Amino acid sequence: MSAEPSSSTSWTRNEIAARLARDIPDGAYVNLGIGLPTLVSNFLPSDREIILHTENGMLGMGPEAAEGQIDPDLINAGKIPVTELPGASYFHHGDSFGMMRGGHLDVCVLGAFQVSKTGDLANWSTGAPDAIPAVGGAMDLAIGAKQVFVMMELASKKGVSKLVETCTYPLTGLGCVDRLYTDRAVFELSTDGATVIELVGATTIDELQGLTGLELRYRKIPE
Amino acid sequence: MISKTSESAAAALADVADGATIMIGGFGLAGQPMQLIDALLEQGATDLTVVSNNAGNGDTGLAALIGARRVRKIVCSFPRQTDSHIFDALYRSGGIELELVPQGNLAERIRAAGAGIGAFFTPTGFGTALAEGKETRTIGGRDFVLEHPLFADVALISAYRADRLGNLTYRKTSRNFGPIMAGAAATTVVQVDRVVEAGDLDPEAVVTPGIFVNRIVVTGDRFDREEWADVR
């Protein structure tokens, strides 16, 4: 699939996914979180062998099952029927989360409500008092890979930055996000704060600093 | 001669007591032991604590058990789903207690119970609301939370094939919590499509050894059911 053309200062969700997919190396074991991150699977480079993990007990997950191929025993973490690729394996939940916690996965891709400049992640609850809490594997995934990538739009629908000094939503994990892929820029996060490593189109550092209220470094990383 | 096969689901669950802690396998509907849950509904035990990943889907299985007001408390990772209306309504009205546990910690607490582990330090949840009030420790420069095992009186799980000794094989992602729940309960009841002769399961392919299984209920071939029509 090719990403549709974008405006000069921002990427579409597909373009964010396509950009992120380019950073997943050949041979990587990868978990794509529920929601936005599943878009990444459409852009995985065809010349790389990338093994997808689903936390409900499978490595070598294939595409979503087409009509007429539905197997109730073969679903992904979003409970959507999927398929298996040659070389797939199944395992129980203890092993599946051991794979994550034990640092065996190379990359995990997550969505977020907020990410702090030092890589704290908030993606499981907005803290609304009437909401029914549900965490699933979010906290395990946040600490469950050698590299944790987040993809999200940089600003909320109301124009408020979701990259923040300190998260105000309930935390999923502390200092766990390594890279943040947004519609305006790609960031590297560490205990030292946020570094912009790629600007989208004509976006400037000044604009990003204005939007986020953060002091941002810029260090262009060649892909 | 050992034979763990029960004559019916009702017979296998006859001694489940009020107030019991019940583990129920499954991730969504995959691996959810529907016939055993239906039998538990029929059996009548109430004031139950249920340990399961979700809090029921639609109107059947675990959702029906919750809807019948038989569950006092649920320990799970992801109660809220698009089709969890029965749990949602009861939770909002204060009719059910919820202990929310990150999915990997839930799995490891279940595994720990079966493996004789007193408690364990896990990085998952450190610094979050779900670790509040729990003991923490920094080990090798990394922060951990102390989590305790989860035991059950009865585990209800679903597998594919059993032999009379209770050795089990599973099918695809319906395995999920089955193998670890089998170890964590005083009594493990499994529903399987079919029981085969001892020796008919390849010992190298057995996933849950029979030592973890107490009672077997035969439900008939899943491929005869409408939901499996595509893969028959």
Radius of gyration of chain B, whole Å: 18 Å
The end-to-end span of chain A amounts to 20 Å
Q: Report the CATH topology name of the largest domain in chain B.
A: Glutaconate Coenzyme A-transferase
User: Percentage of helical residues of chain A?
Assistant: 10-25%
Query: From the coordinates shown, what is the CATH architecture of the largest domain in chain B?
Result: 3-Layer(aba) Sandwich
CATH architecture of chain A: 3-Layer(aba) Sandwich
How many domains of chain A? The number is 1
CATH class of chain A: Alpha Beta
How many distinct beta strands of chain B? 13
> Would you state the CATH class of the largest domain in chain B?
Alpha Beta
Report the sheet with the most strands of chain B, covering strand number, pairing sense and barrel closure.
Answer: 7 strands, parallel
SSE-based structural type of chain A: alpha/beta
Based on CA inertia axes, which overall geometry of chain B fits? Answer: globular
Strand content range of chain B: 25-35%
Number of helices of chain A: 4
Q: Radius of gyration of chain A in whole Å, from Cα? A: 17 Å
Alpha-beta content class of chain B = alpha/beta
In short:
The complex is a heterodimer of chains A (223) and B (232). With 223 residues, chain A is α/β, with parallel strands linked by helices.
Explain this structure.
Chain A: One of its GO terms (molecular function) is CoA-transferase activity. The complex is a heterodimer of chains A (223) and B (232). Chain A is an alpha/beta fold and 223 residues long. Chain A has a single domain (13-218), classed as Glutaconate Coenzyme A-transferase, CATH 3.40.1080. Chain A has four helices and 13 strands. Chain A has helices spanning 13-21, 93-101, 138-142, 205-212, and strands at residues 29-32, 51-54, 58-64, 82-90, 107-110, 114-116, 121-122, 147-151, 163-164, 179-181, 185-190, 193-199, 217-218. In chain A, the strands form two sheets. Chain A has a ten-stranded mixed beta sheet with strand order 4-3-2-1-5-8-10-11-12-13. Chain A has a three-stranded mixed beta sheet with strand order 7-6-9, with no helix packed on it. The radius of gyration of chain A is 17 Å and the shape is globular. Chain A starts with 12 loop residues before the first helix and ends in a 5-residue tail after the last strand. Chain B is an alpha/beta fold and 232 residues long. Chain B folds into two domains: 18-100 and 151-219, Glutaconate Coenzyme A-transferase, CATH 3.40.1080.10; 115-149, no CATH class. Chain B has helices spanning 9-12, 34-43, 62-67, 85-92, 103-115, 178-184, and strands at residues 21-24, 48-51, 71-76, 97-100, 120-122, 136-139, 142-147, 152-158, 161-163, 168-169, 185-192, 194-196, 215-218. In chain B, strand 2 (48-51), helix 3 and strand 3 (71-76) form a beta-alpha-beta unit. In chain B, helix 5 (103-115) packs across helix 6. The longest helix of chain B has 13 residues, at 103-115. The chains are: A alpha/beta (223), B alpha/beta (232).
